[in-house]
UniProtKB/TrEMBL annotation:
Coiled coil: none annotated. Pfam families: dCache_3 (PF14827), EAL (PF00563), GGDEF (PF00990). Residues 340-472 form the GGDEF domain. One of its GO terms (molecular function) is cyclic-guanylate-specific phosphodiesterase activity. SUPFAM superfamilies: EAL domain-like, Nucleotide cyclase. Gene3D superfamilies: 3.30.70.270, EAL domain. Residues 482-723 form the EAL domain. This is Diguanylate cyclase/phosphodiesterase. Keywords: Membrane, Transmembrane, Transmembrane helix. The chain crosses the membrane at residues 12-30, 284-307. InterPro entries: Cyclic-di-GMP_PDE-like, dCache_3, EAL_dom, EAL_sf, GGDEF_dom, Nucleotide_cyclase, Rev_trsase/Diguanyl_cyclase.
Amino acid sequence: MNIPNRTKRNTLMLALFILLSSSLIAYLFLNYQLKKSINSEFERVVESTHRLFEINLKDEKEYLDISLDELLLSDGLSKAVANGDYKAIDSIVSPYYKKLKQSKKAVNILTFRSEDGITLYRAHKPEFFGDKVSQQRKLIADTNFFKRSFDGFEVGKFEMTYRVTRPIFYNEKYVGNLELGISPEYFLHELNAVFKTELGIAIDKKLLDIFSNKEEKGTVAIDDRYVLIDNKQNLKKYFMDENRSESLYKVSMNISLKNHLSESLGHLIVGFDIRDIAEKNTNFIYMLFFMIALMMFILVGILHFGFNKILKHFSKQVYKDHLTNLKNRYALDDALTSQKSKVLILSNIKEFSLLNELYGVHVGNETLIQVAHAFKEFAQEHSFEVYRISSDEYVLLKNDENFDEDSYSKLTEELHCKINSLNIVIHGVDEIISIEIYSGIAHDHAHSLEDAQMALKKAKKNSLSYMIYSKNVDTKESSQTILNIKKTIKHALEHKNVVPFFQPITDKNGTIVKYEALVRIVEFDNGKKNILSPAEFLDISMKSGSYIKIAKEMLEQSFSIFASRSEKISVNFLPNDFLNPSIMEALIIGIEKFESPNRVVVEITEQEGVENFERLLHVVKKLRDIGILIAIDDFGSGYANYAHILQIKPDYLKIDGSLIKDILEDNESRILVQSIVRFAKELGITTVAEYVETKEIFELLKSYGVDEFQGYYFGRPTDLIGV
């Protein structure tokens, strides 16, 4: 009897050992998977936060650039800065700043400075001005020194702001700069709303020492190097409190906040509290451990089956939203890991938080349940998977390799019609609740959710019901084009690729009497010659400060070529060019190469809003005294001032091409051209017709009495002119 009893006892001990060992292994494995899952989730959140932070930063930079462009184009602003006129600046900027603050409350700095760094005006503190900018402020000092725009983060007195600067030019001369600053708490608020994390800002202690040697409130030391700016996010409460376990609060400082020189000033801190997740999963693991042990004691033979069944239950609990019974964010993340192309529609309820405040959480929850039911019906009708990923956010997901924008636009409109037409009836609430939704749509296999969030954000910003993510949502292309043109202009000036092209001008007999110099930029791409017209680069050159160099290069080359020729040379000037000493000096030096200055024709291109006509008239008279001929270009284009013509008394009137090109069919053009010719003849002014492309136009204009002709009928602009 002893042997059987001993055998039973040994068998029982072995079974218990196996059971306990298996349970321990299971517990350790689940605990390991839990930690791995939490770490992976944290890494994903950090990566997504970083990506969205950079996108938001670029979007805000573009918005601020547009805002500053709008401000700098204000009438009289450049002149007011040049004159240091505080009252004039205030009258222009004050209403603009109030408007800007209404749309961007986080904007807390708008400052104008003179070219030597003296503060002329602060929109945010208009009563303070006149101080000298500190040389420690690298961004501002560099703007003053290089006379071009910079942007980046900057540490002020125990705070950090994102700043954008712009140089200000008046009459092509640098007169000062404009600085705009926005609080980074604005970015943190948006990121918190998206990722449900806690964010803070850490600054290098050395930077704080620049401004003060005193220890101030509002900051707390993180370690030997960094200081945390207290932005009321309670970050320090979680990872600095000694009574809490650091393992229950994960922190990343991998996102650098850089200044305009790409120097790291500090870091964006991403904090993720895993206590609730860890506690729920730990409790579940204990329950699971107990159930496994119990089932093993009942029947060792079905241990494997029971364990798998419980694991399935665990997975189901983890991937289900318990309020609506829809799949949750974890399930969506798993679905998005596959490499198949998907269409993702992200929707959220307009002003749902207000509904919660008015009616209470119970009514809000019941609303979410009924909305979830409507989403589920729509998903079943159109073969989508449906998820609830946060309080009032729902996702429809569908595998689709061939994304058709029109089809999904109609589908989204059908979704909105269904949800927006819901009549939500809740017990205890007298009125019927109606809601509206916004949606963002993305088609991708890697970052669909983030793309849809950007599209949703744009839809809200533009007051649209939905938006499909595309490159246009990121608005990067136009900025890249302008940057490329700036690089092209710089390269062209450095390598003498700004060249004059010449178009012939003939008399009534078709004999060439002069040439007009027209600016071009010549590029060579893999041996292929590419020619840029003024329309592609001239406006950008004016805004970037390179226009004067282009104008001087054109004058130098044109006069060098025609100094030894017999024909006249005609060069173009904008009215404000006559007010620029540098351009006028280049003109005078070029004319010295000619034995007879009357072979040089200066064309004044008509332009609306000449700043100082009296000064322009004075310069024109000086040029006439030298012997230079004067022409009014594009006459009849819409800005002509006949009184100015009588004062300037030009030698030539060039009739605008817009009147010539349709003259055979347009009776009004014929009447206007005849009127201009009569007006010119009575004043003894030679008329020149542009855009003469056919023999019929040529013969008609001759019959009207036009003196000279220019257009493709006689020759296109070229850089090589035969002797």
